[in-house]
């Protein structure tokens, strides 16, 4: 056993990071806008119809909407000059809200013609916002092949971000054997830092690109703190696998709810790149930011791959993964390699969080939601290897996204997890990994 | 050089794969590779009942892997093997001890968080109290438990561990753990023991005692096969020696013939004896 | 600020049905994790199938006793479903697969609409009336001073702690037998157990299923007490909380789950009450913490507690340091 004071030092450090984050957060949590706060009495659906293809976006007045429960019509609304509408509902339940596309101005239509009717589930005393995405009227609806192709490309986007976020999880497992259940919180941390730097009212409001770079650095710092403050000490105490898993679960739970206190429960977007007009490449139609994210992530992943292959550090990492004792005996500074792996892995995870926040919204638990998919990616690819995480991430991303062609997207996470379970059962060593030594 | 009792393996030619008059263990075409590396490739090997067989070979020769394959801890790519009338291939690891073939591990697996006595009583087979339906009713298994404990105590006495009876096994020394593991294996009432480096990391003072036990066991009719790196020890105690190199049995025979076997000498000159220092470290 | 009221509240929760249900869940987990070393991170799924088994049966017109049987049967089925494929995996993979499987199950229960068997996000309500009809206590308030329960609360509480007692005794009997000795061997080194002829797989499965059924009772208890099931009450965080209870009390100890649950709920409720009062009294500025943050504060504390316990006192209050799974082998 080690002296306890050291571990306490670790917590002091962690607490400090937390306090810093709180300090930077305060202005943000004070500012709340009233749009989606739950009302306590009756149930509502509401929304705002805007033509976002225009700059600035133009509210559409006089658009008619109806709400139905089953076949029974329960309410209707017409948008006001702000484009806003609201329908009061008779109680909790499942409703279908239909937008009458004939009441839209000329030349304007729904971005996706199939989405004129949206199904919504309202719980007791809740109001829910509905978004009808307005865009240029698409002349022809897409063929199944085109839809599948687009889903596939979206899947690649999901996959590369997943891969970026999971490389660290995999490499850290490789060099230390730690299955880090708090890795998701590193991802969230990156997104939150970028949010506070760029989009928070009390923050410095810097451009998102600069904030993303700082988030990458902050992620690396976070990795440094976690490794040198906590996990290195636990390793020195020869803590077992099971103990480490439990510790990382506790850590994740703690961080996640600290984030919740700081950031609040409501998902928030970055202020830049929120809504973009789709950009068409042949039959593929995606917002430009998605193309940029795919390109950047791929470039980074390739760079990581090359670093692992070509540099002494990469060789050292692989040596430590293969056989720690042997690496140590041949003069590699194992502890330093582990520290660098943590910093690099956490930095990539932080950036992954920013990307995830750009394509989706930022929530206090976005990393945890992603965690199981990351495990899926890492295990599928072969835990401990960087390429494995990349390959696994792509497979998981594409599978889940393409699956929404057949199953409703609320089951999407379920699909990812099912793939994970199958992967573990059929090939526990992963697609690229090796079997373990017995006896 | 063979021990005082009459060497039971007489009149068998010292060549790899030779048949024995009364084999208790018989292996054919056993093969295992890891990726490109062929870890074990044994065409034929027999083990004579009631003898001590020493298994030697440089580090990485495939000795542990062969034990793993024989006892179901690793799956063979090919091969058949039988023990005293039962075909073992395809059996699961837990079924094999029940046929009377029990192994120990190179890295001792004394259960450190259980007491020495629990380690011993655990190992007894066909305990009624291990069945879910009966374990709740103590009277059903109390008598058997007493018998098992008596047997365990006798063995602990014999292996000089009686004074540690109620201690956690984690408090034992490396050598004591090896002794405990061997004593525990005997609780299974095996007819053959596969001992993987029973002396690794053992204090030289205890070393002699371990081999005295092995000899006693043999004299009681047990068959023993053990892996050992110290050549003088192997030569001193074995009735028969098998030498593995790169997964294959390159020589077998009485100790004297092995000591002068050119292939064996070659293999050992190639790999020197530094390995003794490296192996070991009992848990 | 009324510190006495906060204390009374904390004591009420610490001996109430909620604490009993957590104790029960922890008794089950103790068998799986404490004694067998199974890193089951999908324990909440056992609570969920127990609760849903009961709720759906009653919702479809069945009697409550049948619902309870269905809940138990569902837990056995789930144990086999979890266990058969996963129990051959390493501890860390088992953790990942069980947490994933529990989430898949929850997503499947949550997915369908209001008219389905599970009623999706709306959940099922008011299926425990038969249980409350059996209440032998006459109307009134029962208790000492400010710690008191209604006859309804007392009835649930009595049944709950009785169940805890029964299952604690069961687990004690099981783990003190040679069967339990094999479990402890498996916890430490399953290869060692195998090399001595123990059918590791079957014993792990038995442990998982029995622990799961105990977990299902906990789920049924909670659901009947609340008269409501909802998929969003069975998040992974519940499993983590049960781990905290178990490690607080002491894994592989007889009374650990009970001590852990009582203490856990006392601390949680006291801190929450205290924080709420402190915010109201203006001791904590609203910009740092407001009342809506109190739920988050609870789980932050649970996480911190779980981490600190595992680092500094993995044997909890009652466990034996020598037996706890802490060191690498
Ligand atoms: N699970 C495994 N995966 C990959 N290679 C393995 C595995 N198990 C064993 N090997 C390799 O098989 C070869 C034989 O190993 P084995 O442990 O059987 O040797 P050994 O004769 O027992 O050596 P020693 O005397 O050092 O104990 C070695 O090269 C080893 O690296
Ligand atoms: Mg070996």
User: Oligomeric state of the chains?
Assistant: heterotrimer
Spatial gap, N to C terminus of chain C: 51 Å
Rounded Rg of chain A? 24 Å
Chains forming the largest contact: A-C, 54 and 59 residues
Q: Please report the number of helical segments of chain C.
A: 13
Percentage beta strand of chain C = under 5%
Q: Tell how many strands the DSSP assignment of chain A holds.
A: 13
**Can you tell me the CATH architecture of the largest domain in chain A?**
Orthogonal Bundle
Summed up:
In chain A, 55% of the residues lie in helices and 13% in strands. With 439 residues, chain A is α+β, with helices and mostly antiparallel strands. Chain A has two domains: 82 residues, Immunoglobulins (Immunoglobulin-like, Sandwich); 282 residues, Orthogonal Bundle (ABC transporter involved in vitamin B12 uptake, BtuC), CATH 1.10.3470.
Labels describing this entry:
heterotrimer, A: 439 residues, alpha+beta, Immunoglobulin-like, ABC transporter involved in vitamin B12 uptake, BtuC, 2 domains, four-stranded antiparallel sheet, three-stranded mixed sheet, 12 helices, 13% strand, C: 329 residues, mainly alpha, two-stranded antiparallel sheet, 13 helices, 4 strands, globular, binds adenosine-5'-triphosphate, binds magnesium ion
Task: Describe the SSE topology.
The complex is a heterotrimer of chains A (439), B (283) and C (329).
Chain A: H1 4-30, E1 43-48, E2 50-51, E3 58-59, E4 64-69, E5 72-78, E6 84-89, E7 93-99, E8 108-110, E9 117-122, E10 127-129, E11 134-136, H2 144-176, H3 183-198, H4 208-236, H5 241-263, E12 279-281, E13 284-286, H6 288-310, H7 312-322, H8 324-329, H9 334-359, H10 366-381, H11 386-403, H12 412-426
Parallel strand pairs in A: 1-10
Antiparallel strand pairs in A: 1-6, 2-3, 4-5, 4-7, 7-9, 8-11, 12-13
Chain B: E1 23-34, E2 37-48, E3 52-56, H1 63-70, E4 78-83, E5 86-87, E6 101-103, H2 116-123, H3 132-135, H4 138-158, H5 174-187, E7 192-195, H6 204-219, E8 223-227, H7 231-237, E9 240-245, E10 248-253, H8 255-259, H9 262-271, H10 275-278
Parallel strand pairs in B: 3-8, 3-9, 6-7, 7-8
Antiparallel strand pairs in B: 1-2, 1-4, 4-5, 9-10
Helix pairs in contact in B: 2-5, 4-5
Chain C: H1 3-15, H2 17-35, H3 43-59, H4 64-86, H5 91-110, E1 124-125, H6 129-133, E2 141-144, E3 147-150, H7 151-176, H8 178-188, H9 190-195, H10 200-226, E4 228-229, H11 236-249, H12 256-280, H13 294-312
Antiparallel strand pairs in C: 1-4, 2-3
Helix pairs in contact in C: 1-12, 2-7, 2-10, 2-11, 2-12, 3-4, 3-5, 3-10, 4-10, 7-10, 8-10, 11-12, 11-13, 12-13
Bound molecules: adenosine-5'-triphosphate and magnesium ion (MG).
The site of magnesium ion has 3 residues of chain B, from helix 1.
């Amino acid at each position: 056993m080690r002296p306890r004071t050291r571990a306490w030092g670790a917590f002091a450090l962690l607490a400090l990071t937390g306090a810093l984050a709180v300090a930077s957060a305060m202005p943000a949590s004070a500012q709340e806008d009233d749009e989606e706060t739950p009302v306590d009495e009756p149930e509502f659906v509401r929304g705002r119809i805007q033509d976002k293809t225009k700059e600035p976006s133009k509210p559409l007045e006089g658009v008619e909407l109806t709400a139905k429960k089953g076949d029974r019509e329960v309410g209707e609304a017409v948008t006001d000059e702000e484009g806003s509408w609201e329908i009061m509902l008779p109680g909790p339940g499942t409703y279908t809200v239909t937008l009458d596309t004939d009441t839209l101005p000329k030349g304007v239509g729904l971005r996706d013609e199939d989405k004129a009717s949206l199904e919504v589930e309202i719980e007791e005393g809740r109001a829910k916002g509905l978004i009808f995405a307005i865009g240029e009227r698409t002349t022809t609806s897409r063929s199944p092949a085109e839809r599948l192709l687009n889903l596939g490309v979206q899947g690649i986007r999901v996959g590369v971000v997943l891969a970026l976020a999971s490389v660290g999880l995999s490499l850290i497992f490789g060099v230390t054997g730690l299955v880090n259940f708090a890795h998701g919180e590193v991802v969230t941390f990156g997104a939150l830092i970028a949010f506070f730097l760029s989009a928070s009212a009390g923050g410095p409001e810097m451009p998102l690109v600069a904030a993303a770079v700082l988030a990458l650095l902050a992620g690396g710092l976070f990795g440094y703190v976690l490794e040198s403050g906590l996990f290195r000490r636990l390793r020195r105490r020869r803590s077992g696998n099971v103990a480490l898993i439990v510790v990382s679960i506790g850590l994740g739970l703690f961080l996640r709810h600290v984030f919740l206190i700081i950031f609040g429960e409501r998902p928030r977007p970055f202020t830049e790149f929120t809504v973009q007009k789709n950009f068409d490449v042949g039959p593929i139609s995606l917002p430009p930011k998605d193309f940029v994210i795919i390109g950047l992530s791929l470039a980074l992943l390739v760079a990581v791959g090359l670093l692992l292959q070509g540099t002494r550090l990469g060789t050292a990492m692989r040596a430590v993964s293969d056989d720690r004792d042997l690496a140590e005996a041949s003069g590699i500074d194992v502890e330093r390699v582990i520290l660098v792996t943590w910093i690099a892995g956490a930095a990539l995870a932080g950036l992954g969080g920013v990307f995830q926040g750009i394509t989706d919204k930022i929530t206090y638990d976005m990393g945890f939601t992603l965690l199981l998919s990351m495990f899926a990616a890492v295990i599928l690819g072969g835990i401990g290897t960087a390429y494995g995480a990349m390959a696994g991430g792509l497979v998981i991303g594409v599978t889940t996204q393409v699956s929404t062609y057949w199953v409703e997207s609320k089951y999407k996470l379920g699909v990812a997890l099912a793939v994970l379970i199958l992967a573990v059962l059929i090939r526990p060593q992963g697609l690229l990994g090796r079997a373990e030594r017995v006896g | 050089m063979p021990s005082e009792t009459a060497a039971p393996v007489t009149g068998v030619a010292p060549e790899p794969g030779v048949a024995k008059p009364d084999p208790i263990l018989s292996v054919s075409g056993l093969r295992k590779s890891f990726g490109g590396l062929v870890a074990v490739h044994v065409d034929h090997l027999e083990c004579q009942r009631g003898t001590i067989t020493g298994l030697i070979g440089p580090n990485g020769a495939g000795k542990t892997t062969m034990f793993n394959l024989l006892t179901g801890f690793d799956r063979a790519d090919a091969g058949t093997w039988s023990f005293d009338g039962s075909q073992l291939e395809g059996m699961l690891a837990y079924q094999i001890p029940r046929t009377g073939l029990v192994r120990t591990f190179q890295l001792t697996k004394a259960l450190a968080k259980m007491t020495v006595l629990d380690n011993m009583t655990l190992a007894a087979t066909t305990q009624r109290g291990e069945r879910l339906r009966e374990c709740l009713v103590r009277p059903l298994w109390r008598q058997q438990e007493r018998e098992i404990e008596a047997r365990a105590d006798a063995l602990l006495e014999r292996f000089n561990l009686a004074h540690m009876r109620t201690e956690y096994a984690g408090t034992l020394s490396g050598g004591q753990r090896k002794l405990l593991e061997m004593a525990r294996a005997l609780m299974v009432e095996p007819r053959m023991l596969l001992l993987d480096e029973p002396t690794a990391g053992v204090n030289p003072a205890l070393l002699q005692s371990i081999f005295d036990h092995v000899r006693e066991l043999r004299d009681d009719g047990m068959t023993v096969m053990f892996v050992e790196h110290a050549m003088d020890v192997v030569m001193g105690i074995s009735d028969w020696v098998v030498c593995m190199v790169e997964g294959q049995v390159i020589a077998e025979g009485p100790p004297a013939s092995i000591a002068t076997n050119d292939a064996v000498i070659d293999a050992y000159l190639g790999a020197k004896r530094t390995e003794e220092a490296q192996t070991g470290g009992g848990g | 600020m009324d510190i006495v009221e906060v204390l009374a509240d904390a004591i009420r929760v610490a001996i109430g049905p909620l604490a009993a249900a957590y104790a029960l869940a922890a008794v089950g987990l103790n068998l799986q994790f404490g004694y067998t070393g199974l890193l089951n991170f999908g324990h909440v799924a056992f609570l969920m199938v127990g609760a849903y088994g009961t709720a759906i049966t009653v919702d479809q017109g069945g009697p409550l006793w049948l619902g309870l049987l269905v809940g138990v049967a569902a837990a056995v089925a789930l144990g086999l479903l979890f266990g058969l494929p996963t129990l051959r995996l390493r501890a860390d993979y088992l953790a990942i697969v069980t947490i994933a499987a529990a989430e898949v199950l929850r997503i499947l229960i949550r997915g369908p609409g209001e008219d389905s068997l599970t009623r999706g996000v709306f959940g099922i309500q008011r299926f425990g009336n038969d249980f409350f009809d059996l209440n032998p206590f006459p109307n009134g308030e029962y208790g000492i001073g400010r710690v008191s329960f209604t006859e309804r609360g007392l009835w649930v509480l009595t049944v709950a702690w009785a169940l805890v007692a029964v299952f604690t005794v069961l687990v004690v009997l099981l783990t003190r037998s040679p069967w339990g000795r094999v479990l402890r061997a498996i916890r430490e080194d399953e290869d060692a157990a195998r090399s001595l002829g123990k059918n590791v797989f079957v014993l792990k499965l038995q442990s998982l299923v029995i622990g799961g059924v105990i977990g299902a009772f906990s789920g049924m208890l909670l659901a009947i007490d609340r008269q409501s099931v909802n998929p969003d009450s069975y998040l992974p965080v519940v499993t983590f909380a049960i781990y905290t209870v178990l490690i607080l009390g002491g894994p592989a100890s007889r009374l650990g789950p009970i001590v852990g649950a009582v203490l856990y709920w006392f601390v949680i409720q006291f801190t929450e009450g205290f924080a709420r009062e402190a915010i109201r009294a203006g001791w904590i500025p609203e910009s740092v913490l407001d009342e809506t943050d109190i739920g988050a504060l609870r789980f932050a504390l649970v996480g911190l507690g779980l981490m600190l316990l595992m680092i500094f006192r993995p044997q909890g209050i009652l466990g034996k340091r020598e037996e706890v799974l802490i060191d690498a082998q």
